[in-house]
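Quick note —
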Amino acid sequence: MTLTGGEDDRQAAAPAPTATATAVAVPSVSVTLPSDAPSSLPSLLARPVVRPEQAFPETAVRLPDGSRYERVDLATTTECARGTSPELAALIDQGKGCLRLTAALFTDTDRRSQVTVTVVSFRRAEDAGSVFGLASMDPVTYQTVSLDPPPEANMPTVPPGSAGVFRRLMTVRSVVFANGQWGDGAETGETELTRQTEGLLQYVNDNVVAYEDGDDAPGTS
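Predicted structure written out below.
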């Protein structure tokens, strides 16, 4: 699968630009590791980044609260800018680079929700910290692309301008993003959409943490 879709969502969620710019301007961010960083960090960073099948091991997902979801699409790339907003891509370029971006699209049993969870893995933990910090302060500007459903999923594409829920977590060297929307573009049901988005975010984050902390068999059903 290729990384497509989400452009209309980003434009709709972001405020209208006041001027036309030829280049994306982002704050210059410098993050250093704290003095109490674990001594095992260099060896953890020496490992290969988490692979798609490790971050997203299941097509049918059951969360601890009993809710069930289907993974309807999966896309991965080493050209991370393809899966991010221009501002996030420019921020990533300030550091030593992103090694892999993998995104998966999930839907609930009613096939109404569309939640894209994206894992962005970096060479350095400091760069993950920079991205996580700015994305937490401005989640609309510094966001990842939401996947459009593939034709075989028999699901609608989210209408442009639809509201969404944006969440993120940070691991050793990755930032895990989750973008949740209703497939019909509804603006009601925010509490339920937030619950689904945060639940799937935590599920994927746990898989990534398990791998990055040295457990090569993440994912439970």
